[in-house]
Structure formats: C-alpha cells, structure tokens
From TrEMBL:
Lineage, broadest ranks: Bacteria, Bacillati, Actinomycetota, Actinomycetes, Propionibacteriales
Protein family (similarity comment): Belongs to the ABC transporter superfamily.
InterPro entries: AAA+_ATPase (IPR003593), ABC_transporter-like_ATP-bd (IPR003439), P-loop_NTPase (IPR027417)
An example Gene Ontology molecular-function term: ATP binding
SUPFAM superfamilies: P-loop containing nucleoside triphosphate hydrolases (SSF52540)
KW Transmembrane helix (keyword) present: no
Coiled coil: none
Domain ABC transporter: 5-232
Name this protein carries in UniProt: ABC-2 type transport system ATP-binding protein
Record flagged with keyword Transcription: no
Cross-referenced Pfam families: ABC_tran (PF00005)
Keywords for this protein: ATP-binding, Nucleotide-binding, Transport
Length: 303
C-alpha cells in the first residue's frame, strides 16, 4: 500500500524556539490517522506545514506522492483542508464563500449540494451573509469546503468545534463515507470519542515531539474515567468499592466519586449488586489523558 502522508524529520522553529522538534510520521493510503496532544504541542503547526501554509525549518513532507515544498499545487488539488481557526469573509454569503474557496481547489465542487443537505445548511442560509451565521454554521461551511471537491485526502484540525451532537454524528458519517471511497484522513482533535470512532492509528505529540504512536484502540484503553455513583441506600460494606482500577475514591453519604482505569466489566458487575440510582462515567479528553501519562517530563515511549 502506498503512503498518503509522509513526514520526515520535520522541524519548525519560531525565533529559535522549536514548535516542532523532529516529527516523523506516515499515514498509508486509505488510513485514518488521529493526531493528539496538549495545547501548544504543535498539532496546528504540523498541519500548517502539511498544507504549505508554514515553511518548515527542516524536514521533508510528501502528500499523495508530491513534495509539499516543490509541488504544492498538486498537493492542494487533492487535499481537503479544514483549518483550526477557520476564517470566512463576513460580508460574503455562505454560497459566495464556498464558490471562492472552490476556485482555490481547482476541481469542481461536485458534492456541495449533497453536503449542504446532510449538514442541514439550507439554500436560504447559503444566501445569507456569513456575519449573520452562528459558530456552528461557519464550521459547516468549513466542512463543506473541505469535502466538496472529493479530495483523496482530508487534513482536519479540530473539525467538530462548534457543532451540536447531531451534526457531529453527521460529520462522523461523512468521514466514514470518505474512508469507504478509499480516502485518507489526518485528524487533529481533543475529543476522545471522535478520535476513537474515526481513526485506527494515532500519534501523541508533546512539546513538538511524537512521544507515542500506535493503534487508537490500544492508547484509548489507557484513559481515565471520572465516575460518579449515586446509591439509593448506604453501602453495607465500605470496602465494596475496592475494585481494581478504582482510585481517588471520595464518598459523601450516598454519592461516591472516583477515577477508573481499565476494563469496566468487573466494576459494572459489582455495581449490579448495589441499589444504584445513577452512575455517570465521563472519559477524560484524550489530550489530558496522555498529558497525564507522560507528566511534565519529556520521557515518552514509542511503539
Ligand atoms: N506564528 C507563531 N509565532 C510564534 N510561535 C508560534 C506561532 N505559531 C505557533 N507558535 C508556537 O508553537 C507552539 C505550537 O503551537 P501549535 O499552535 O502548533 O500547537 P497546538 O498543538 O495546535 O495547540 P492547541 O491545541 O492549543 O491548538 C506553541 O508554543 C506556540 O506558541
């Protein structure tokens, strides 16, 4: 299988301070790759380098076989890009913005109508000036322009920012459709469920370096969950919540809060023996989880 994205020894320094300090990664044609890390890790800088928006200090990037430094036009023709901070022209209508962005893509926007329907951006909405749009509507324009010309690869920076849960689901369906058609995805996100649902491989970036890469399922298995258990009756045995994976237990009457790591099955079995009024389990954001794994040190593992 060919490589859709190949990055070798990417360095970007801003005034001698490294934002990227030797990043190398590869994404096979047709793969979905997640790119995660705490704020300031260098995710957006990497994506800007991939799209030729920032000139690397060192390193080589090839996308769909084209060298970004020497053949940017060919790269842009075949890539759909959604920047993290997506700016639109407030005085233009949504349709005018899509038209203009379409001219930069050098390919017909064959999917625009269908995408507008799926993301529920009506023809009336498209005729309105963007200054009147909500944040989510602007994000929909961003998604539509990234997909509208049927690119072979998508490079997406925090793509679901501002979308409501229904639209997030539609977006995930769009990604699945892109994969089914053989397309490649490079997605930077802080949202665990999104990365889990849409990617098979993930790289964790920290302070400009990749500290780990691997199967998404392996890495997300290490996440912490914040759990809140509300019981109908007090626990008969205070040690009843002494279960593998539970830590930081704080009890206040019928309410028990704790953190949980690992396989939830034994925990759920134990909960089945209690009179439970409510149980909430919130996964931590992926970036936080990995930040916790690696602490403040630069020590990282590679697989
Ligand atoms: N134009 C710039 N000039 C100077 N420093 C910059 C510039 N752009 C980014 N940086 C620095 O480079 C580092 C990486 O920033 P980047 O925006 O790539 O991180 P990120 O992982 O996308 O963060 P976030 O999750 O907060 O969006 C940060 O220290 C940032 O301050």
């Amino acid at each position: 299988m060919g490589m859709a994205i190949e990055v070798e020894g990417l360095v970007k320094r801003y005034r001698r301070k490294p934002a990227l300090d030797g990043v190398s990664l590869s994404v096979a044609d047709g793969d979905a790759f997640g790119y995660v890390g705490p704020n300031g890790a260098g995710k957006t800088t990497t994506i800007r380098c991939l799209l030729g928006l920032v000139r690397p200090t060192a390193g080589v990037i090839r996308i769909l076989g084209h060298n970004v430094a020497t053949d940017l036009g060919a790269v842009l023709a075949d890539v759909g890009h959604l920047p993290g901070e997506f700016g639109l022209w407030p005085q233009l209508t949504g349709a005018e913005c899509l038209d203009y962005l379409g001219t930069l893509q050098q390919r017909a926007p064959v999917r625009r109508r269908e995408l507008c329907d799926r993301l529920e951006l009506s023809q009336a909405d498209l005729r309105r000036q963007v200054r009147l749009y909500s944040r989510g509507m602007k994000q929909k324009i961003g998604i539509i322009q990234a997909f509208q010309h049927e690119p072979r690869a998508l490079v997406l920076d925090e793509p679901t920012e501002g979308l409501d849960p229904v639209m997030k689901e539609r977006f995930v369906e769009l990604l699945a459709g892109h994969r089914q058609a053989g397309g490649t995805i490079f997605l930077s996100s802080h949202i665990l469920s999104e990365v889990e649902e849409t990617t098979e491989r993930v790289a964790v970036l920290k302070a400009g370096r990749i500290v780990r890469t691997g199967a998404t399922a392996d890495l997300t298995g290490e996440r912490v969950r914040h759990c809140t258990l509300v019981l109908k009756q007090p626990l008969a045995d205070a040690a009843a919540l002494d279960i593998e994976g539970v830590s930081g237990l704080e009890s206040d009457g019928l309410i028990h809060r704790f953190e949980f790591r690992g396989d939830m099955e034994p925990l759920m079995r134990r909960l089945g023996t209690f009179a439970v009024q409510e149980f909430l389990s919130e996964p931590e954001h992926l970036a936080e989880t990995f930040f916790e794994i690696y602490g403040d040190s630069d020590q990282g593992r590679s697989r």
